[in-house]
Amino acid sequence: MIEFPNHSRSYDRTRRAVRFWGHDSAIEASFFINENALKRIQPDIGYDESGFLRAFDSNRDLICAAAAKVYVRGSRGSYDLLADNF
Question: Residue 53 burial (CB < 10 Å; 0-12/13-18/19+)?
Answer without folding.
Answer: middle
